[in-house]
Design goal:
By secondary structure, the chain is mainly alpha-helical. It contains 7 helices and no strands.
Length: 211
């Protein structure tokens, strides 16, 4: 049975989100020791867990253990991306992408929580944009985009996932968070951050390759 929603649990969401990022970082470090043949099965498992999490959104809350297992696996599957850009563009580009993501995420989060405007109306637009990004990603598998196309795709990704940060924080501020919803809200923020990070990393990687 759900308890009443309250904005007092927002700090708990942020703490849980921060811990999720730390666990994902450990997963990325562990990715060094994972055989290449396991990355695809882990990516499939990650996708299945994500589907379960959003199915539970309508049924019941996910647990903290589910969240932390998911973020650890997500960290592992992030390793090949980080390793690729570290080798292609240098570790400084990866660090810069993470720092830029942190600045953008924090700035948008502060704006959303300080603003009197309710940005929850963005949900439909963001979902449509996200589906478009998914379609383009699938298209890119079969018909690879050029560097200019990927740059544009990545900039759109930054806008969309920044929008999701705005949407999620605004929704929590105006509608509150039930204590049992904390892990799911933290998962939303984690996905916003990671996808924003990947988009920014891709942009910096492409720009550095043109130097």
């Amino acid at each position: 049975m759900y308890t009443q929603a309250s904005s007092e649990f927002l700090p708990s969401v942020i703490r849980t989100f921060a811990l999720s990022l730390a666990i994902a970082f450990l997963g990325t470090m562990a990715g060094v020791f994972v055989p290449d043949s396991l990355f695809m099965p882990l990516a499939i498992l990650e996708f299945v867990m994500l589907m379960i999490a959003f199915f539970f959104r309508r049924k019941k809350a996910i647990s903290y253990s589910f969240l932390y297992v998911f973020t650890f696996i997500s960290g592992i599957t992030l390793y090949p991306i980080v390793a690729y850009y570290t080798a292609a563009a240098g570790a400084n580009v990866v660090v810069m992408a993470f720092a830029s993501t942190t600045v953008v995420f924090t700035g948008v989060a502060i704006y959303a929580t300080k603003s009197k405007q309710n940005f929850s109306f963005l949900g439909g637009f963001l979902l449509a944009a996200l589906l478009a990004l998914v379609v383009i990603s699938i298209y890119n598998i079969f018909f690879p985009l050029g560097s200019t196309g990927m740059l544009a795709f990545s900039f759109i990704g930054v806008v969309v996932f920044s929008g999701y940060v705005l949407f999620d924080f605004s929704r929590m501020k105006h509608y509150g968070v039930r204590p049992e919803e904390v892990p799911l809200m933290a998962l939303n923020l984690y996905l916003d951050f990671i996808n924003l990070f990947i988009s920014i990393l891709r942009i910096l990687g492409i720009l550095s390759s043109r130097d």
